[in-house]
Amino acid sequence: MSRYDNFYFPPSRPREAKGGIKARSKRGAFAETWWGQRWLQVLESFNIGARLSRGRTYARKGQVLDLDIGYGEVSAKVQGSRRTPYKVNVALKPIADKDWKKLGKAVADDTWSAARLIAGEMPENLEDAFKAAGVPLFPAKLNDLKTSCSCPDWSNPCKHIAAVYYLLGEVFDSDPFLLFRLRGLSREEFVTHLGDAAPTARRTERAAAKPPPQPLSTDPSTFWGGQRVDTPFVEAFGAADAAPLVATLGPIPLWRGNEDFLSAVARATQQAVPRGLQAWTGDR
Fold it and tell me: According to a count of CB atoms within 10 Å of the terminal CB, is the N or C end of the chain lower?
């Protein structure tokens, strides 16, 4: 902790934020994936000081009201002790297109890593590929991050910026391509680089294996008529597994409810599914 941390601006109690983005983490470490944890480990290694811990508290209380990840920058609003929320901006230098193409070729040559990345999981060796290309995926030093906050605190980062840092770790957990977006490239653009770098024979093989699209029926009765559902299926889709399809999505980033999203959907499904299936199967 710097001896100036509380010299000009002693700790103040923030106003209660309504509808803020609460971190999933209630205690202990933030983030669950290696890339989300790595993002935070890099920031903590910069020896920023006590404001990081205050930022964790702000993130858990839901003081961050809005968070938008753009190309090369993040904008957010954080509720502090004043009536008007503070405006926070975090910028990270985008990676040049020529370097993205180099990275796309390196990843495309490793079929297993490419498949994991497209499936939404960042392979552990991806950070090494970025370093080999001379463009680190994560900030190499604190000056790589250009940050600002409209609060009166002279320290940078302040606790409001730190709160955004921690929420970003959880957001990256859910979608690693948002980290790519922060470095200047969308998921679709990176997948395009992978396709351009893949051997022609492999692309042709994939195209040949793709089944032709099937047209939908023009008979409206096929849509509204439905089909009878067997009893074993109804039982399997009951309260024991209330929201199986939604559960495959995993944690919903930037969920603002006081209750976990999956828990809320599961409870609603338990109440609605038995009644709906009863009507659908004709068992009235």
Answer: C
Q: Distance (Å, rounded) from C-alpha 199 to C-alpha 143? A: 39
Residue 276, domain extent: 225-281
Same domain, yes or no, for 129 and 269?
no
* 184 and 133 within one domain: yes
Same domain membership, residue 191 and residue 138:
yes
At residue 53, does pLDDT exceed 60? yes
| Greatest mean pLDDT range, 52-56, 203-207, 222-226 | 52-56
Q: What is the pLDDT of residues 129-173, one digit of tens each?
A: 888 888 888 998 888 999 999 999 888 889 999 999 999 999 998
* pTM of the predicted model over 0.90: no
pLDDT at residue 70 tops 50: yes
Q: Which two tokens stand for residue 186?
A: 């969308």
User: Is residue 218 in some structural domain?
Assistant: no
Name residue 232's beta-bridge partners.
none
Statement to judge: residues 173 and 80 lie in one domain: yes
Average pLDDT over residues 102-121: 84
Q: How far apart are CA 101 and CA 198, in angstroms?
A: 12
Q: What is the DSSP letter of 76?
A: E
118 and 249: one domain?
no
How far apart CA 176 and CA 168 sit, in angstroms, is 11
Instruction: Give yes or no: residues 55 and 195 share one domain.
Output: yes
Q: Which residues, at least 6 apart from 149, have a Cβ–Cβ distance to it below 8 Å?
A: 78, 86, 87, 88, 89, 156, 157, 158, 160, 161
Strands 73-78 and 86-92 turn out to be antiparallel
- Number of domains within the chain: 2
217 within a domain of the structure (yes/no): no
Nearest to 93 by CA among 37, 163, 147: 147
